[in-house]
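Lab meeting notes turned into a lecture example. A postdoc, R.K., suggested we walk through two folding results consecutively so the class can see how the record format repeats. The first protein's sequence and structure tokens come next.
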Amino acid sequence: MRDLKQLVKAYDVRGVVPDQWDESLSFALGAAFVRVVGASAIVVGHDMRPSSPSLSRAFAQGAAASGADVVEIGLCSTDQLYYASGSLDLPGAMFTASHNPAQYNGIKLCRAGASPVGQDTGLAEIRELVESWTGPDDSVTVPALDVTPGTLSAKDTLGGYVGHLLGLVDLGGIRPLKVVVDAGNGMGGHTVPTVFAGLPIDLVELYFELDGTFPNHEANPLDPANLVDLQAKVTECGADLGLAFDGDADRCFVIDERGQAVSPSAITALVAAREITRAQANGEANPVVIHNLITSHTVPEVVRELGATPVRTRVGHSFIKQEMATTNAVFGGEHSAHYYFRDFWRADTGMLAALHVLAALGHQSQPLSTLTTQYDRYAASGEINSTVTDQQAATDKVRTHYATFEGATTDTLDGLTITTPTWWLNLRASNTEPLLRLNVEADDPATMATVRDTVLTLIRA
């Protein structure tokens, strides 16, 4: 029997098509979504993967059969779906597997106002409902409700999305910029031309053709191998910067004029500074900025220096969004290049972060590498994954090794974090794979390398 726990994960639906799911299961998920969230209307969008149109239509039909009117917005980025959910005040479903290979697809679900639906906020109930409808032969029979079926209608939200974003960043008077964008054959190829259309930008396009088979490289800018083409093009054409979007264009990575990657932590600090300043100018006395526990210590330092309050959370969008709602934070950032904005329904949008970078760069004359120096204060390892069968035993070895280290403090907010006056490390277990994820940051490269190599030796032994 099909194991839906392998498909319906902590934050979203994600699996191989058609092996793990197909249109019949998508129909059931649409019906279950409407019943669990109690929606009378929803909005549905999809990315450019070959399986996305049919899966999203089946979901819409399942939702309509359960009595909900469905607004289909068609091809869109994930943050465009969040815009539609926020502006229309409707629950939403985005069909995408983000940066996963072509055979995958998935669904990101939200309640009205782009509020996330995760394991603890409805996703488990959706899974359990679909499981109750699934027979031993994996056939799914959705019990009919005594309701009038909902309608399906189409709506174009791209123009509204662009207008909303441009209303949140002052790009007036920026100097002309040459910008290389690598869309990775993903949804950035759909959104970027319209967003940039009225700006003084000489746009150099890389892989803007929408192609869910990803013929050029994986649409995962977190892997340095997928940034190589963009880095080469930036230096080749003398661009001011480069931007790389993932498959559903909700994450954005930045390359400076030298072809060097700017860490997402530095971008988090830069955007945080701008959002803090804007909030203070509007009379907000003590703005709050959220950061996860493996962003650089530069981020909370910059936030405090500007008279605002940093709040540290676990890794993961549901934790960031929940803490933003609790604290009314103006902004949140993660090491993975997810950027969350209060003025964007606390949802993540790489495009808005990119516009902030363009504004910061364009309103002064220095190159990006100089501008971001103040936000890049430490030596970082980046996230290093190790395949480890017994994750707890390996973590305990690291805990024991540093137990008597001078000045070391330990916390377990998310995995194991050890902090000293000159370095910190975090070791977290993957929820879905036999992996341990290591991040190390130190005052200097030599110390970082020593700690990194010591930990890797311990956990890989």
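The second example is placed directly after the first for contrast:
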Amino acid sequence: MAGSRVRVVAALGTAQTLAWASSYYLPALLARPMAAELGVAEPTVFAAFSVALVVSALVGPHSGRRIDRWGGRPVLMATSGLFALGLAAMALASGPIGLFAAWLVMGVAMGSGLYEAAFASLVRLYGQEARGAITGITLIAGFASTVGWPLTAALEHAFGWRGACWAWAGLHLVLGLPLNAWLPRALPTTAAAATDTTTGASGKPPALTAALLAWVFAVSWFISTAMAAHLPRLLSAVGAAPTAVILVSALVGPAQVAGRLLEFGLLRHLHPLHSARAAALMHPLGAALLAVLGAPAVAAFALLHGAGNGILTIAKGTLPLALFGSQGYGQRQGLLVLPARLAQALSPWLFGLLLAGLGTRVLWFSAALALSALAALLLIRVPARTLAETVETSP
């Protein structure tokens, strides 16, 4: 059984690496050549990407409901085809209409094929015991940018941006589709059982807790996306040298993986609410150091922000499971992250405006946002049943 679970995690983690690398991380390297050839401004490409994020937010609950009923295998297999279709449409685009149409398809694929769908698929297979598997796939897919950016750059250099899109589309068919098809079949459930989200693990209506979690996820995704888009510019604004900006920005990825390893090791015996609270404190601590000390604190900021973001990524999957249970998980997960996807779509534009207007004082804004997420997490109580289960499973 343990070996079978390892194979599932390895297959799904690899498929997720492919999905993230060919969607979320694609515009960073291809936006400029796309814009130049299609005759549009570079921000137009990112606007199309933002539209895809909005579409993914709207699709998420529907995709989650289908995973609740049928399991992740058929949904993720269909998503491989959607990713391939969207990337092929992108490669064939001849203007802004074709570009936006391609990203609309990509939005549907992202809403039904990224982390939330993978988490729901694992919960459908393993129920309350899915926490370790969720951590496992985030450990593997945490290298999506590390793998995706160099590969996209090499493909674009060799074949142009259209060739890069065709190559990623082909990889979804020859690699992603078989990997997702390798997932075990889940027994179908009735529609009523799959969509019953009226009670949580504690037996009480989860509306307030769900609202608090939705705020936490929206804040954490807003900050992580803002840092991904503007970190080099922010570090330059505090006086870091150009070489230091590049080196320190590269620390965020390894720090995220380190945070996930910490969750997989020491923190796995704690209720995920406690690890999420610790993680929510890391960005404001790093931001305060950077705001006060300036350039000497850039490495500390990158490490703290990255580690906190890595743990919070796992919390997006494990917290709803621990607080509300596995029944109806997929649909509930889609609803919980819907505000987060919308915040993610607005983040690069809004944070860019704030950075331009406030300069380095924008760090106090991001720190205050993160502290509001921490406050929300502190208002959530650990259900007595899940707390007992955590204690019983500790060594």
